[in-house]
Specification:
The chain folds into two domains: about 160 residues, FAD/NAD(P)-binding domain (3-Layer(bba) Sandwich); about 140 residues, D-Amino Acid Oxidase, subunit A, domain 2 (D-Amino Acid Oxidase, Chain A, domain 2), CATH 3.30.9.10. It contains ten helices and 21 strands. A hairpin with a 4-residue loop joins strand 16 and strand 17. The longest helix has 21 residues.
Length: about 375
Amino acid sequence: MNLPLNTPIWETGNWKKLPPVAGPLGADVCVVGLGGSGLTAIHELLGRGARVIGVDAGMVAGGAAGRNGGLALAGLAPFYHHAVLDIGQERALGFYRATIEEQARMREATPDCVRVTGSLRIAVDAEEGEDCLRLFESMQSDGLPVELYDGAEGRGLLFPGDMSFNPLARCRSLALQALERGAQLFEDSAATEIAGDAVIANGQTISCGAVIVAVDGRLDLVLPELAGRVRTARLQMLGTEPATDATLERPMYLRNGREYVQQLENGAFALGGFHDMFEEEEWTHESSPTDEIQGLLESFLRECIGTTARITHRWAASVGYVGGTLPVMEEVRPGVWGIGGYSGTGNLVGALSGRAAAVAALGGKSELLQLFQQPQG
């Protein structure tokens, strides 16, 4: 099968495309963005009895949701002890426990796409080793699952409940499930106008009572009001053919999470990182891989992983970053809720943001929504 360049390793080419919006429509809530967070919001809305329409400028999970490393790591973007310092122990613990609950929901909703593997944080130097010990002590004192680790990969921490998964297959499964539950979903339907009572998508009007903009990368373009808080970055990855000369039992990340790798069930490797090595160039809305970072990834593959497996995929994705600990989850315009800025860790936190936004869009209340809405500090 010949797939286009900049295609993630997760792509099979077997997706049957959904139609574009072709006429005026109406719903209780319109969700803009059919990635993991948007689809989770749609399922939450459906579970609360809402009529839902979802639109995407491209295809289901065509952005970072289907182009990431396939790791479902508990917690917020900063490590737990850093989150405690920033937003307080009670709130950081609430979020960490909520991500563990979301892991269980992932296993239940898409069991064929998910593996409970655990994950490793490996220290690359003494400074990171000391930070691992501080993280271990903080998590252990609050009753969170973590173990000291010393193995072939190096020394660091083991998080036994973390998971690896196929992000594109999972989103497509969620989309099909949403269609079966009565949602209306449309691809190739860019939202050019967004207000609390209507979305113009593919030139057609979708009347609604509220809108959730579930876009991570390029959120600053879709909702310019957030341009000062959310910044789009390019993250790059590569993938290999099934390897016969190296084995990695569970996903691993190094340099405080900047590099990350997992081995798929068929033996292939998927890895990414080195965004910080060319940081100014990588703050961009462009989403094509570059020779410089791909070269670093290839060296990491050969020297750290130790495999000669042929590289079959090179790709990139746009991801939203925020300056603080928490992502965006707020009413940006009257009746328009924006979510994004997951700082590279959106697989669980993005889903939580989608659930919280769904509750908020319907005027409801929940403990999760309260976590997002409390002021920082």
